[in-house]
């Protein structure tokens, strides 16, 4: 996708200059031949002036047409949850790093530079609604990466979907997969719940489990679904223990049944995961430990406090055993990323969304893309080339049309690093159809 057309234009211009110079050279040769004319010096000096004037003007104008930055940019919108309590700065950092990589090494979008338009939001759903409306009204933004969490993602994603704007969201609730025009390459809590139990049963032979939930009204409604999904996979949850946000959670953790095969933690942020991990260590529980993706931040993983835990992520980028593809992801992030860039947390998800967003803009017509053409490209998107992801395709199985990614990676933390000995765990959303019955 190199700008060959620009180089052809430049070559043509240089050829024209060569012809002019040759013509002027002929004039110079003719001038000395008129030796019998003593008054000929003045005309003989004019031909050199003409080639000097013309090349001096044209090369000054020509370079301005060469740089990609001078072409009309195409834009990617990003709703970034970067303020207040729940913040994911790694999302913005990873997307920006990949945009810079696209522009520097992959010729942007068909020669047009990509610009990232970031709308920062916080914990309050109103800030996410404001960002969604901003992008709905932006005629030059045709695809939005939506990094909102839980109810924030649902509210902003629904607004974007109803406006027909392509939305790459963090799926969090069932509505994210059932809303028309809303597509997700993240399995969200419903999908991750299924992955937890499939993995725990098939890879760890777990039959009984304690459930630890963040004492947060946004997470509490998932409790019945977790019980039902566990039961459907042959795992009985015997108890729910709610964890607050205090730095010492040893008390509530110590109340859990240490006779259960596994403990599953569905928590809200890294600080709560750290407190829970300290409680587990104090209690001395020796069964299988599982945590949701919000526990897998780079700092927490590298601290070693989660050694032995297993959890799902949507990209294999953070693993130490990912091979050449993951080495390339890390090269891009190391080359173009800033202080906040990382592949843990939601960074791996963000990498995939950036690649998909560029794919959609190209498929939708590049600089001539429209909101309608990009949404059409998303509704039939299929790829096996998204780095760190398994095959993805839209739509998902009926009625879960928005479930475009069906295979999260289950990683196990060892010695402060993420490993993936078990690879991707296949997720068939249709196995959750029973949750919609009755």
Question: What keyword list fits this structure?
Answer:
Rossmann fold, five-stranded parallel β-sheet, seven-stranded mixed β-sheet, 438 residues, 3 domains, alpha/beta
Structure description:
The protein is an alpha/beta fold and 438 residues long. The protein has 14 helices and 14 strands. The chain has helices spanning 4-33, 41-61, 89-105, 125-136, 151-162, 175-178, 188-204, 223-232, 250-254, 270-283, 298-303, 324-336, 347-363, 371-379, and strands at 74-81, 114-121, 141-146, 166-169, 183-184, 208-214, 236-243, 262-266, 288-291, 309-313, 382-383, 392-393, 409-414, 417-419. The strands form three sheets. It has a seven-stranded mixed sheet. A hairpin with a 2-residue loop joins strand 13 and strand 14. Helix 3 packs across helix 12 (324-336), helix 3 packs across helix 13 and helix 4 (125-136) runs parallel beside helix 5 (151-162). The radius of gyration is 29 Å and the shape is globular. The relative contact order is 0.12.
């Amino acid at each position: 996708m190199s700008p060959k057309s620009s180089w052809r234009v430049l070559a043509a211009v240089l050829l024209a200059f060569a012809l002019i110079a040759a013509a002027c050279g002929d004039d110079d040769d003719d001038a000395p031949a008129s030796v019998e004319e003593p008054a000929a010096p003045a005309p003989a000096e004019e031909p050199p002036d003409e080639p000097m004037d013309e090349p001096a003007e044209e090369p000054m104008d020509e370079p301005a047409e060469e740089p990609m930055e001078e072409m009309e940019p195409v834009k990617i919108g990003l709703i970034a949850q970067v303020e207040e309590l729940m913040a994911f700065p790694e999302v913005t950092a990873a997307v920006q790093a990949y945009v810079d990589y696209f522009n520097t090494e992959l010729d942007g979008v068909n020669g047009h530079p990509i610009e990232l338009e970031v709308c920062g939001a916080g914990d309050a759903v109103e800030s996410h609604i404001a960002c969604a409306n901003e992008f709905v009204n932006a005629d030059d933004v045709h695809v939005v990466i939506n990094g909102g969490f839980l109810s924030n993602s649902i509210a902003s994603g629904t607004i974007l979907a109803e406006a027909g704007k392509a939305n790459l969201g963090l799926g969090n609730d069932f509505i994210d997969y059932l809303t028309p025009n809303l597509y997700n390459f993240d399995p969200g809590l419903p999908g991750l719940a299924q992955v937890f139990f499939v993995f725990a049963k098939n890879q760890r032979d777990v039959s009984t489990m304690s459930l630890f939930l963040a004492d947060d009204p946004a997470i509490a409604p998932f409790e019945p679904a977790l019980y039902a999904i566990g039961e459907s996979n042959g795992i009985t949850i015997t108890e729910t223990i709610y964890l607050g946000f205090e730095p010492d959670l040893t008390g509530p953790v110590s109340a859990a049944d240490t006779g259960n095969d596994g403990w599953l933690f569905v928590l809200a942020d890294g600080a709560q995961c750290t407190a829970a991990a300290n409680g587990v260590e104090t209690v001395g529980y020796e069964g299988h430990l599982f945590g949701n993706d919000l526990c897998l931040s780079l700092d927490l993983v590298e601290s070693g406090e989660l050694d032995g835990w297993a959890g799902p992520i949507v990209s294999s980028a953070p693993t130490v055993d990912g091979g050449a593809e993951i080495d390339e992801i890390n090269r891009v992030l190391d080359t173009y990323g800033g202080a906040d860039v990382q592949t843990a947390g939601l960074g791996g998800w963000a990498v995939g969304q950036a690649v998909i967003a560029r794919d959609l803009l190209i498929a939708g017509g590049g600089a001539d893309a429209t909101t309608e053409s990009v949404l059409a490209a998303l509704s039939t998107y299929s790829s096996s080339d998204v780095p760190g992801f398994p095959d993805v395709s839209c739509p998902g199985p009926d009625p879960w049309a928005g479930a475009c990614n069906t295979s999260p990676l289950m990683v196990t933390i060892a010695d402060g690093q993420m490993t993936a000995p078990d690879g991707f765990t296949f997720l068939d959303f249709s196995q959750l159809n029973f949750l919609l019955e009755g």
